[in-house]
Amino acid sequence: MAGRGKLIAVIGDEDTVTGFLLGGIGELNKNRHPNFLVVEKDTTINEIEDTFRSLGSLLGSVVEAKPNEHDPPLWDEIDSRQFLHRDDIGIILINQYIAEMVRHALDAHQHSIPAVLEIPSKEHPYDAAKDSILRRARGMFTAEDLR
């Protein structure tokens, strides 16, 4: 019996996420947390970053904060939505215009899994000059290699 494969996660606008959900990528992990984030006009950049980043990169700031007994359980919230921390996610698709909002977090991600791919949205066409993966790939080859 083959092992279970990895999931595709999506961070995007409503139209993009809805399209992928209709295509069948929507899943909940064992803690009932989805593999997608719909970014709306009232979604903060911190929410997008927190969903994307791994727990390890946020650990220092969480430990320094002294939790109050009246505060919500921060550990559960952080662990639940972070796609880099989840071992069941193999690819993260993110709308390119949203990726621009959290470019520093994307550039800090150096691992091959999960792979982060920037995709166009309905209102924002794809711009290859802004794609960090494509820039990294171009840096691996010389002009002679591409002939």
TrEMBL record:
A GO molecular-function annotation: proton-transporting ATPase activity, rotational mechanism
Keyword terms, alphabetized: Hydrogen ion transport, Ion transport, Transport
Superkingdom assignment: Eukaryota
Pfam families for this protein: ATP-synt_F (PF01990)
One cellular-component annotation, GO: proton-transporting V-type ATPase, V1 domain
Keyword 4Fe-4S part of the UniProt annotation: no
UniProt signal peptide: none
Alphabetized InterPro entries for the sequence: ATPase_V1-cplx_f_g_su, ATPase_V1-cplx_fsu_euk, ATPase_V1_fsu_sf
Family named by the database record: Belongs to the V-ATPase F subunit family.
Subunit architecture: V-ATPase is a heteromultimeric enzyme made up of two complexes: the ATP-hydrolytic V1 complex and the proton translocation V0 complex.
Role: Subunit of the V1 complex of vacuolar(H+)-ATPase (V-ATPase), a multisubunit enzyme composed of a peripheral complex (V1) that hydrolyzes ATP and a membrane integral complex (V0) that translocates protons. V-ATPase is responsible for acidifying and maintaining the pH of intracellular compartments.
Annotated protein name in UniProt: V-type proton ATPase subunit F
Organism: Cebus imitator
